[in-house]
Design a protein that fits this description.
Strand content: 25-35%
CATH architecture: Sandwich
Radius of gyration: 17 Å
Distance between the termini: 36 Å
Structural class: alpha+beta
């Protein structure tokens, strides 16, 4: 039986010196990695602010993960989208208060990558910071394989309009916790069985300040990790809504 997903010939990861050429590289690669895209001092400052603001985190999935700011996909999966939109402005204010400049920097990185005009998506949350605790489900089992299509309009997905995901590592796991990505593209179904996977994909290891850009339609997951501390990363999605015009959200 043919696979219900579109598959690429192979998975390939490009290492780049900056994000300026990243979108062109994505035409031939599954993901683009820029090592040290964020200054170590900024990462340390933002991480300190995030970890010191636990009382203002949004907890998801019974504490298996948390976020400074709100993530649309967690609210969609837990029937809390009304809360997501009602709290969007306050969510961005919390992120800015504890990690000043992070949201603007993440949006600027996507602007570098796509070479177009990038604006915040009206009424949606900007970049948020994920905290995955040690010993919780993602740490012990790895994340769920998924595509980043939840926030895309149906018409956008149908015509396969450009969309990208950007992940920046602030505090990597002591061991493991990389991003595994497969040459499998979204084609209308979210669940992908082991038997449908074309191999093991590619594993991208992170250091603090490293940034990974990939096609939002690509199948990926966070790998399991060990260590006493949490894994802390910032995420932002972008979609081209008109020629040269992109909107971002998380």
């Amino acid at each position: 039986m043919p696979s219900p997903w579109r598959t690429l010939a192979r998975v390939a990861v490009a290492e780049a010196k900056s994000l300026h050429s990243a979108r062109a590289l994505l035409a031939k690669h599954t993901a683009v990695v820029v090592r040290g895209a964020l200054a170590s001092a900024d990462c340390a400052r933002w991480a300190s602010g995030v970890l010191g603001s636990k009382d203002e985190w949004t907890e998801d999935f019974d504490g298996d993960q948390a976020c400074l700011g709100r993530a649309f996909y967690t609210h969609l999966e837990t029937d809390r989208t009304a809360l997501y939109f009602a709290d969007a402005a306050a969510s961005d204010a919390r992120v800015e208060r504890h990690a000043p400049g992070l949201q603007d920097r993440m949006r600027g990185l996507i602007e570098e990558a796509v070479g177009g005009r990038v604006v915040a998506r009206s009424g949606w949350c900007g970049a948020g910071v994920h905290v995955f605790p040690s010993g919780a489900t993602v740490a012990s089992q790895g994340g769920v394989r998924h595509f980043d299509t939840e926030g895309l309009a149906e018409e956008h997905v149908t015509r396969r309009a450009p969309a990208v995901s950007l992940v920046a590592m602030l505090v990597p796991a002591a061991r493991g916790g990389g991003l595994r990505i497969w040459p499998v593209l979204y084609a209308g179904r979210d669940c992908v069985d082991d038997s449908d996977l074309p191999g093991d994909g590619a594993l991208i290891a992170y250091g603090a300040g490293d940034v990974v850009l990939f096609d939002s339609y690509s199948l990926h997951r966070i790998e399991r990790f060990d260590g006493d501390g949490p894994r802390v990363s910032a995420t932002l999605h972008g979609a081209e809504v008109d020629a040269g015009l992109w909107e971002t959200w998380f």
